[in-house]
Amino acid sequence: MTPLPRPAGTSPPAAPPAPAAPPAETARSQGIARVALVLALSALGLWILHGFLPALAWAVVLGIALGPLYAWAERRFPPGKHNLLLPTLAVLAVALVLLAPLAVLAVQAAREAHDVLEFVRNAEKNGVPPPEFLQHLPFGAAQATAWWTANLSHAQAGSDLLHRINNGDLLGFSRNFGREIVHRAVLFGFSLVALFFLFRERRTLQAQALKACDRLFGPRGQRVARQMVASVHGTVDGLVLVGLGEGFLLGIVYYFAGVPHPVLLGALTAVAAMIPFGAAVAIGIAALLLVAAGSATGAIVVAVAGLVVTFVADHFVRPALIGGTTKLPFLWVLLGILGGVETFGLLGLFLGPAVMAALVLLWREFTEGGDRTA
Fold this sequence. Notes:
Low-confidence stretches: none
Largest sheet: none
Strand content: under 5%
Helix content: over 70%
Order of helices and strands: HHHHHHHHHHHHHH
Shape: elongated
Distance between the termini: 61 Å
């Protein structure tokens, strides 16, 4: 329908008035309500996911640690339209690397369980004979051997020792152990699923994280985020890789020195070496086993080799890898690792140095005065 022409000399109709701006009190109350809603939803989400937060944290740590390697594979083999094959292969490779050593250790432990069972049966029938190392003690050898013979070397002593073990406690321990195994397996599977999506959406998540840090904290937020990522890379290189190297080298020493079960002790040394001063415990166990077997020379060789390997690793290799990447003094790296392990368990190996790196960066920027451009 054609509108009627406006008579000459008349002014156009006035535009409708613009809505009045909300008063300052209304805008302030809306801002407070938004903040309260965000905090409430965040708290609710954390409460819902609190059982899976360690698995998510492990997935993030693995995603950060393996990010450069995955980026190289992505450049070498560009992902397809749906980007499913490369993340799947990467997750399967991670699962294989993590599970294969556990499978080897489980098989080795099952083999050793037969010897332990035979020892228990023999102890119940004939008692526990005095070990040979008692005769080589520098002092008190005769008294220690006589006490052992009088209290543990006869059949009744072995039987009494085994009957002191409460069968109900053993049953409860086995049930709890099985429950923990199932729980850890579920969390491990969830970590792998989360890692798949982190690999698949790597570029998007990285861009979103940097943008969020920039919007919330400005250029300083991006610097803190990059510093925490660098600390995870340095911690993986300085703890995991160096620990595996220590375990491999000392496992060879264990084998040639005649330490019983060198594969198991080498793996134990590798895991313990990831924690500062933890390798000394595994080396001490290996040396004591050699002393118990009557090989004092082998124990000295293991102790000296362990001292040399751990000294070089802890005083030269690790500070160069971790401190060089994070620009963090090794004292703060050490405090972050020890405090993180005490607070978060094994996950604290990576979270502790990351938090320390962020705090030291903020302190340096605060003492140097003002924000610097990114």
